[in-house]
Amino acid sequence: MLQALLRLWLILALGCAAQLAQATDADAINLAGQQRMLSQRIVKSWCQIGLNVQPALSKRQLDEAIRRFEDNLKALDPVAASPPARTALAGLRAAWSPLRTTALGVIRQADAELIDARAEDVLMAAERLTRALQDQSSAPVSRWVNLAGRQRMLSQRLVKTYMLRQWGVDNARLRDEMESVQNEFSGALTAMQQRADNSAATRGEIENLALQWEWLRTALATEGAESFRLILAEGGDAVLELADQVTRLYQQSAP
User: Rounded to a whole number, what is the distance in angstroms from the first to the last CA of the chain?
Assistant: First the structure.
């Protein structure tokens, strides 16, 4: 599993390097979409450390997510060309600072709701930026880069919500989130499966994603012992890796 996680972050890092070298609209949308995912991954990893779920690995994931978020902010600066995108990027920077401070602080259950609230602010700001970048693009495939990229975020959001509840953070929003995230992911997955212009490679990766998604949903429905925390953490990362592969295939098909 560790090798798979390292491979995932290498993929993301190489993708970012390519975007810096020659950014297209699809590249920019992919990069902004990563920020949505990272906002949720930071809280997920932070909670896993507090719950003692592979704490050493979770700490590495947390540190890497923070570093990747800041690298992405720098890479997004030259590609946010339209006034709405510039405004959205400034909003994302402003929302990031409080989340970064909490993420780098002492990990304690009393601050779990605080870090989640700050991650929500970052998620909303990253969503506004991603939509602004999609609006400035003329390539039809940009919509699919955005949609597939959002699946990455949902994979981390689902497990984040599970970990928060496992740590004793329980409220109406989180209870609703468990269901709404699954419904949104499944709906987007169906839309991607039905897209007529998918390449053979894209269709294959989407089917792999669908299989892994069903496994994760089954695990959520049958969770019980504390050992399920590790199963859910690994399952969410497997969905993340496959969703990222689909996103990159859409990105590479852009003109």
Answer: 35
Alpha-carbon gap, residue 237 to 3, rounded angstroms = 12
Please identify which residue in the block is written with the tokens 């699919």: 144
Extended strands (E) in 89-203: none
Give the model's pLDDT for residue 66: 98
Residue (of 16, 3, 51, 28) closest to 230 by Cα position:
51
Q: Which residues contact 184 (CB under 8 A, 6 or more apart)?
A: 154
C-alpha to C-alpha distance for 205 and 230, rounded to whole angstroms? 25
Q: Is 32 exposed, middle or buried (0-12, 13-18, 19+ CB in 10 A)?
A: buried
Tokens 């030259």 label which residue?
A: 78
Distance from C-alpha of 145 to C-alpha of 247, rounded to nearest angstrom: 5
- Local confidence band at 7 (pLDDT 50, 70, 90 cut-offs): low
